[in-house]
Input
Amino acid sequence: MSEGIDTGRLTPRDREILKEVILTHILSAEPVSSRSVSKHSHLGLSAATIRNVMADLEEWGFLVQPHTSAGRVPTAAAYHLFIESMMEMRKVPAKEKRYIEENLKSSSADADQLVGATSHLLSELSQQVGIVVTPGWGETVLKAVDFVPVSGRRVLCVVVSSTGFIDNKLIETEEEIPRAELQRISNYLTENFGGQTLRQIRDQILRLMAEERAQMDRALARTIDLARNGLDLDSGPEVVVDGAQTLLARPELSDIQRVRRMFEAFADKARLVRMLSQCLLGSGVRVLIGEDNDLTSELDFSLVAMPYGVGQQTLGTLGIFGPSRMDYQKVIPLVHFLGETLSRALAETFSGGSDRK
Amino acid sequence: MSEGIDTGRLTPRDREILKEVILTHILSAEPVSSRSVSKHSHLGLSAATIRNVMADLEEWGFLVQPHTSAGRVPTAAAYHLFIESMMEMRKVPAKEKRYIEENLKSSSADADQLVGATSHLLSELSQQVGIVVTPGWGETVLKAVDFVPVSGRRVLCVVVSSTGFIDNKLIETEEEIPRAELQRISNYLTENFGGQTLRQIRDQILRLMAEERAQMDRALARTIDLARNGLDLDSGPEVVVDGAQTLLARPELSDIQRVRRMFEAFADKARLVRMLSQCLLGSGVRVLIGEDNDLTSELDFSLVAMPYGVGQQTLGTLGIFGPSRMDYQKVIPLVHFLGETLSRALAETFSGGSDRK
DNA sequence: TCTTAGCACTCTCCCGTCGAGAGTGCTAAG
DNA sequence: CTTAGCACTCTCGACGGGAGAGTGCTAAGA
Output
């Protein structure tokens, strides 16, 4: 929709007025009147003049009136224009940066803890909903496997990814395997399969099984069996959502129907992942507002999100979800900073710090 | 408060009428009129007679009127009486039992997964909020420890409790320790400390450190150091809450203020744990309604909960939280069945099944 | 003595009205 | 091109009346 709008038509004065409307609306959550723009902008124009301009802006698709004789509210197109060319970013305060870095110290935190902390920080510092999508296991590169005997034929398989994600899986073997042999198998698998993705490993194992089933000895058979069961983690990306209740105080969620729709949206993880995935391409912060997307338009919400990852590899997305009327000047740099900090923390977990001595 | 009420005063007819009021209110969520009781009960009494009785019941503290000339609503005392002596339990349908048992199969599920599934089942089958409290780590009995080298000085410590709970903790050691030695240490600690609680183990280690620091050799020092860091899990009980959004459809949550208070209540984990802990004593299902407790009375909610555990050892509590107007006949047996099934599943995880061959 | 029909009373809820207030659009003059 | 002025529109809260539901009380009946 926003492509259809001819922004070239806007004079500097039009832009100034539109900006004032947006800023005021972000603060007040109410339709903005011509009078308030006239008073607060430094243009020295009367309300009547502002009204003429606002009528134009409405015609061009940047403003809407909830009803005749009400003030005006910015559209998604207006927010996009504001973000792209009318807004100066507000830097993340040093205090918040310190706070974030303290909470995302990579030492003694695995990736899941980092992701959880990130989600919480996003929510806490923006007073909106924080969302982080974790990478699925299929494309994960294996760092280490370990089998721990826990009782009888039950074995705990611990899988560590190269980016610090950990998964546990309890498996049942056909016969009891002594601790020493489990350790041999752990070592063997870690050494031989470390550095490959779980998908590659699974394919390899299936091939091995098909080819050599006949001449396999008992030890190899056990190894393959354990690997097949333990490394068979095909779970997709997970979504970590934090702070949904902070939005309950906002005026835009004063009616139950919208609250319900919001929680239904959060319950539909697959749809959330799909929405967040739109921000996977590129490397910077991307903003989805209203009409772009079903979920955001349904609720009049926006999504400010960016991908995170280690080196060239993108692992997932993180972002803030909340009413379109949000403080983009603050929120965009915040998402950016958290994305970089999380990426850095993940990179340090296993490669930096203690490794480079 | 309920102790102060003289239930002996109630004639069988009074009880019948009270029961009818409660049952009707549970279905309708509205104040119950004398006329509707007169029509639906089989007493063959006129509305006027019912009115007299209801006036008495109100005087005795079992009913209240939202306002004059409205029907009547049961009090917490009425629900308690209903549950204790007026209600026949409705058995959990065989279909639901099967569904539960399928979802709580102990094989290849660790305790955290079982707890998560239980919480979800509680919510799904009751259409209320499901809550499960996990045991804190301090009193947990160790089953196995395992150290996995992941990179440089970073070591992943995996702790498995005797009841199937698993925790991972990434620790940083002073120097790089070879994989083989880590495995020796894992074996040593598992063999020597298995069967003790983490608190006991920690005390023992501290004593060891104080006494023998001088004559410790390097290997022992490392072992103790790893044990001290890895087994230092003092996290308290966790609360797993599921299905808060299912309540949004209920008429009692039609105003935002109550929704907010409900979510604030869920955010205050410590208070939830405290409330649930009231149900730790005894072994059966316990019901807290309104006035008994600040959280339930604040929201006009009830808690139906029971402890779960393995053998003599109580591990935690599980229950259902929702508006006092809930279907106790269905919900109490459901909580009971889920409590037993979860306990059984946890018991089987490590002792049953594959162990007894 | 218990039950019940009858009736007056009370309270909620819905609906229409009304006036204030806010904001706009238009017009005509500067 | 700007702006003051004015009529117009729409929301919102207050007010009020009428319908409906339900009660409490009373007096008559079993």
Notes: The first strand of chain A starts at residue 63 and ends at 64. The CA atoms of residues 92 and 334 of chain A lie 6 Å apart. The two ends of chain A are 54 Å apart (CA to CA). The longest helix of chain A spans residues 328-350.
